[in-house]
């Protein structure tokens, strides 16, 4: 629909403009009719591109108050940012190419080097377009997956792109994109403040399948929903890179801890795996965190049965859902949906990921009230592998006085604080711009917009906007930081000098023979299948419950297969939901 809107907008512009271009009107400017129409088309392409640009930053404002209004999460809305980015760059590239052709045909290529004192600056537009093209080239899936670091670092060119775009068109016209960019800058600065301090890393469970569960301390005031994600930065691996991981813990079941599962599938994750899986692992690890981010609410209790289909590390979000249902069944004593987990792994060692369904302090009794059935498939082995027993290890880390438990960036009333930051920063910005215009710009320009430099005006607007955001956000952050400092101190005192499970040493090697199978407490719920793939149609069509929630997380092909089954219309009781992470 949005693409249709842009096409309609461009078509309307051209339909109104082209009839006004006649040989006589074109001759007055020393142009041919096709050249005049090309000039008009180039301008209209830029105007339509600006409409798309005005929506570009909304989907990547992770802590935004706008996304929940549309039922979107930060990870689920990334695809809209990708689509909008392609539209913006396609339109702006066409805009630039059309103008270059126009200038070449009218022998005015010198226009490319003009930076007008007032009005449109061509040089600024060319710099903005060049930065955008470099950024755009690295966003295509094949390049992004194979050279993620290149994609990550070039994406910071958005600063150059936006800065010179504003200089190109002026502050007045670029105001159309102000709301989205304004919210994005506030969100980005708050995330910057949150990430400046290391989070207390309590322990790590190292599995034999190149998988690590990291357990962090958190304040009890921090709550999140199942399938939430958070971003991790490990300075000893890379000071710049932030990677998203699904939270596997549950804020109700584990009120003082938050956990993520990291599967070694890339350069960054493999380096982390090497740090923790070595014979002499590190005794402490500096980790910074942004988040958590997730859906405003989850409604799993409305179904009679939950069918969860996963492939590989796609099981991670389902662990948080199972832990949520464990908590619900234990505390409220209300009925919970039955659970059918269908999971596929490449090798039998990956079966140890099922051991993470229970938290590190989990007891077998926690599953007693939950009707859980697990169908586990090992696709690349026809029988259990005959190999040496595999072990999992729990590593406890040394505490650091400077580390703090993870806490909500703006405290428990984060939405109120965010509203206060948005409103106060914008009001202060308007007041400062009013004073600047009245007592500095007006005496020079007298509202003619032909004397005072458009670029200088734009730079001052951007400077004041950033200063207002930084000031109000920092004030709110420091206020909440002082409020939660008491709780932080209490948590640090409770943790004490040594971990409870490691009374004699900082490094507690809790080896347990797993024989590539999950813990005994859940093994009774598991049916193992070797050398085959799950028959998803049979599993889904055979369900007779009145309401079956179907969740899938894994490779794109798997998600599409399950979606096609649910949308086939052959079973009215299936309700499909895909969990896809496109960071």
How many E-type strands?
A: 14
Shape descriptor: globular
- Mean pLDDT, rounded to whole units? 83
Name the helicity range: 40-55%
How many helix segments?
17
Quick overview:
This protein has 17 helices and 14 strands.
Structure description:
With 583 residues, the protein is an alpha/beta fold. It has helices spanning 2-17, 23-28, 33-53, 78-105, 122-137, 141-146, 148-154, 158-169, 171-174, 178-194, 267-277, 316-331, 414-445, 454-495, 520-523, 536-541, 556-566, and strands at residues 201-207, 211-217, 229-233, 243-246, 257-263, 288-293, 305-311, 338-345, 372-378, 391-396, 512-513, 526-530, 548-553, 574-578. The strands form three sheets. Strands 12-9-8-7-13-14 form a six-stranded parallel sheet, sandwiched between helices. It has a five-stranded antiparallel sheet with strand order 5-2-1-10-11, covered by helices on one side. Strands 4-3-6 form a three-stranded antiparallel sheet. Strand 7 (305-311), helix 12 and strand 8 (338-345) form a beta-alpha-beta unit. Helix 13 (414-445) packs antiparallel against helix 14. The chain is globular, with a radius of gyration of 28 Å. Mean pLDDT is 83; it is low at 496-518.
Write the layout of secondary structure elements.
Elements: H1 2-17, H2 23-28, H3 33-53, H4 78-105, H5 122-137, H6 141-146, H7 148-154, H8 158-169, H9 171-174, H10 178-194, E1 201-207, E2 211-217, E3 229-233, E4 243-246, E5 257-263, H11 267-277, E6 288-293, E7 305-311, H12 316-331, E8 338-345, E9 372-378, E10 391-396, H13 414-445, H14 454-495, E11 512-513, H15 520-523, E12 526-530, H16 536-541, E13 548-553, H17 556-566, E14 574-578
Parallel strand pairs: 7-8, 7-13, 8-9, 9-12, 13-14
Antiparallel strand pairs: 1-2, 1-10, 2-5, 3-4, 3-6, 10-11
Helix pairs in contact: 1-3, 3-4, 4-5, 5-8, 8-14, 10-14, 13-14
